[in-house]
Amino acid sequence: MHIHILGICGTFMGGVAALAREAGHRVTGCDAGVYPPMSDQLRALGIDLIEGFGADQLSLAPDMFVVGNVVSRARLPDGSPKFPLMEAILDAGKPYTSGPQWLAEHVLFGRHVLAVAGTHGKTTTTSMLAWVLEKGSKAPGFLVGGVPLDFGVSARLGDGPAFVIEADEYDTAFFDKRSKFVHYRPRTAVLNNLEFDHADIFDDLAAIERQFHHLVRTVPSTGRLVVNATEESLQRVLAQGCWSELARFGAGGPNTEWQARGSHDAFDVLRRGEAVGRVEWELSGLHNQMNALAAIAAAEHVGVPPAEAARALGSFRNVRRRMELRGTAERAGGAITVYDDFAHHPTAIRTTLDGLRQKLDAAGKQSERILAAFEPRSNTMKLGVMAAQLPWSLESADLSFCHTAGLDWDAAAALAPMGERAQVANAIEPLVKQVVAAARSGDHIVCMSNGGFGGVHDKLLAALRAPAAS
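^ that's the sequence the OP posted. Answer follows.
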């Protein structure tokens, strides 16, 4: 089969392309931003890429056009279509489908699908689960919205029956407004947490809860739902109906089957109060401890014993852009460390910074400062609906620096409660200057964005390493 993918350079659609190519299909694709590293990864797989969405691509005559959710029926100011190829497909009556639908029919059908859903931690937990199954000799397939360091790729078919997938609640396509995860039909589903997000497509939290319940409805009676017991929103989802085995995890409660005992970097895994495994690793934060419990409970459903799963997590190396060390700048009193993190929602920002603060405190480094450099880049953050939460999200940072380019709301006003602890800049260069001027020996600089952040990581390291900065 020849498929032509519209919006191929997105993380999800790029993963679909890689899986289709591995399965032996001919794959071509187009996007408005065909650039490294995704373009290099796809071309290395033998996938031809075209810049733009020109109608002339109709002449490729694929068996199926696979449409990413970046594509719409939008019009430019002059009245011309923003995506001429999509208009040509519709006019010519050519076959088309969405990425999730194609994946469900050609990759997931007949597999034991383990789907990981939640507002936060999807990528990390999916990667943990894939790694646990790999170490448990299950040879899983997977599709992750990032690059797990233990695998080096975001997607593979795998040789075993299990397939682990990051289950995104974002909409499927312009012609299918259901969440992507409704297509996956999991036998094991993780509901990690649930907050309001994606304000560009959801009116309120209740609308997202309805989509999560659509997912719950697809899990068979012989399946398992692994659910965070501490999330009230998820309890409301379950109250709408639950027809599967339920395994709750969290900090406690009478119905919480899976819990942790110990510090975040070394803890016993408890099942109904009995220690069944121990995790010792380099990761930090309560959020990763909860991610681990979810992965262990899900892996147990496909035959990986908890003790074995816990040992496997001891060698888990996390995911790129999850507190990924980008480099250091040496100083006489201690190096300045620069990290890259994907945090793009107030809760994710707070969780990331809290985890680092706890790690520093546990290591006796209470005097070392955290500097947060971030940009409100997600669709939700650009709308400003969560601006008031920013001071709360940044409480663990000693200093914060916000990149404000492209915002229609006043970030300085939102950060005003932080006083001199917060600065704003409308471009990358002045933001780098602000951070470098404030940085001192032993500082930890965490750069947070769901985009490339203008290469701020390398620019900061270059400026910090310059003789004048030293």
